[in-house]
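Data card: per-record layout.
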Amino acid sequence: MDYFAATRAFVRAAELQSFSKTANELSVKTSTVSRYISELEKDLGIALFNRSTRGLVLTEGGRLFREHAMFALQALDDAREVTSSLNRTPQGVLRVTIPPAFGRLHIVPHLPAFMSRYPDIDLDIVSTDETLNMIDAGIDVAIRTGVMPDSSLMARRLAPHRRVVCGSPAYLERRGIPRTPDELSAHDALRLSLIPDDKWSFARSPANLQSSRDAPELTVVELKGRLRTGDQEAVLALAVAGCGVALLPTWLAAADLRARRLQQVLPEWEARTGRADPAVWAVYPPKKVVSSKVRVFVDFYAEAFGEPPYWDDGLAPARAP
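The structure for this 321-residue chain is written out next.
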C-alpha cells in the first residue's frame, strides 16, 4: 500500500464526504479510493467511516486519525516546499490585499520593478480598507498599517508608521500654532471615522525625556471640529485647504510637508493609540514554510521602503522643546 497516497485520499474523502468526488479530484478511479480506505482500515484495525445514505461520516477513530494525518501531510508538504524552493524560481499567482491610499502611494509605484525582477509571478491586487479574512478570501499576503491586533497570523514589520499633527500655514497663522497637546482642544480638528472617539493621545518622544528610565508622559486631548470622514486622503486635502489641524501618517503627508503646503506642529510629541508602536506590516497566514513568492514580495518591499523609510527623508525628526 502507498501509505502517503492512501492517507491523502482518506483526508480528502473525509472533507468531501464522498469517494467519487475524491476520486475525481485526485484523478483516480473510485474503486482505487475505496481500496485505499479499506487497506488503511485493515492496517489500523478500526473502521474509519460509517456509510449512510447521506454520505460518509467519520467514526471516532476516523476523526482521531484525520487530526494526526493532517499534521503529517502538512509536514510532508512543507518539507517538499522548502527543499524544492531552493532551486525554483518564485512563480504563480500572488494574491495581495492593500489599503487604497497607502497602496496607491507606496505599493503600486514599485510594482513595475517587482514584476520585472520576478517575471514568473502574476499579481492579483485587492485594494480595500476592509480587514479581510485571509484564508477565506484566498489572500497570500496583506499589507496593513497601524497596530497589529493579537492574531494567529504571521507578520513582518516593514516600516514605522509615524504620525504628525499638521495644518496649513494659512490656518496656523489665523488660529495660532499650538505649543502643547492641550492647546489642540481649541482648534478645529479634522477627525477620522476610524478612531472610535474624539481623542488624540500623545507621549513625549524619547529624545525629550529627562532620562532613558523615565516613562513617557501621556496626554489625552479632547477634540473639537465640524468634520469627520473615513477617508485619510480627504483629511489631507482638507488640511491643505486650511480647514483645520489633522493627525496624519508621514507616508501620506510627506509630500505636502516638504512642499510647505502643510506645517508640522508639536514635533516633540508622538501620537499614540496604545502601548504598541504602529507600523506598516506584511501579514500572511501561519505556515511553517512561507512560499517563495510571498517571501520575495515581502523582502522586496522591505528593501524598497528602507529604514528609515524613504517617505520620512527630509522631514523634521523629533526635537527638544
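Known properties of this structure: The mean pLDDT is 86. The first strand starts at residue 49 and ends at 52.

See the next section for split statistics.
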